[in-house]
Write a structure and sequence with these properties.
Distance between the termini: 67 Å
Largest sheet: 4 strands, mixed
CATH architecture of the largest domain: Orthogonal Bundle
Number of strands: 11
CATH class of the largest domain: Mainly Alpha
CATH topology of the largest domain: Helix Hairpins
Number of helices: 10
Strand content: 15-25%
Number of domains: 3
Strand order of the largest sheet: 6-7-11-10
CATH superfamily of the largest domain: DnaJ domain
Order of helices and strands: HHHHHHEHEEEEEEHEEEEHH
Radius of gyration: 31 Å
Amino acid sequence: MKYKDYYAALGVPRDADAEQIKKAYRKLARQHHPDVSKSPGTEARFKEVGEAYATLKDPEKRAAYDELGRRPAGQEFAPPPQWTHEHAFDGQSFEDIDLADLLDALGRRHQGASRGPVPMHGRDYETTARISLEDAHHGTTLSLNLEDGAGGRRLDVTIPAGVTEGQKLRLRGKGGKGRNGGSDGDIYLHISLAPHPVFRADRHDLHFDLALAPWEAALGAEIEVQTLDGPVVLTVPPGTRSGRKLRLRGRGLANGHGGRGDLYAAVHIDVPATLTERERDLFKDLAGASRFNPRVVVAKEKAT
């Protein structure tokens, strides 16, 4: 079990009275509420503040918490024997119990529950699953190695099609075993998409760079491009300019609800690094015949 410094979480001294604790909680809860703050980690901070207040506002829970002593935040510890005896937790292991769950169980007991074993929720786990775009599109199965009190175990997890970068999946009941009839813990799986050699993901849309030869951009063309489901033909309209985005509707990532995002091709125009004599002559002919001046076109567009 890891120690949590609830006084530090609320920014109050250990001898703070109930009014100071309530005032600090209200201020921090408003500041870190997910609907108000979009800063990274605000959800975790909001939860931390709420957990600290739930303990310190209750005189009995606060007294039991204070009896545990003071330790560095995050340090592994177990309640001293006298504490476990006084609160009727004799014979129980505290290795995988969360401090908040322990104090919550203690609070229920003081409200009139039996002095027998208290049901305790199993340990929750959080881990990151790094998957490919192909796996996000089609779905996949992963094997997770979890370290727990039993020395570790392996769990096969199904990732559904349509997951996106940063999405959090909850695997209910797949965490640590509950105690004394308590529910099993959960696993929270954070999705991370591995970089792809061709595509960039923006939720369910995909983007890629499309190189065109000058004549393809000027005259238009039918270009074979890759998607996650195989090659398709993209129509390049005549007069396509560098920087334009061409959309293939419904060729992006599956969204998990029977639909798909779109595929966007970002156009840039390339030229041959070396020319044959015939190509050089043709380009010279074009330069002499064409009245097109890209710098004048850009200037006119900026003026309008």
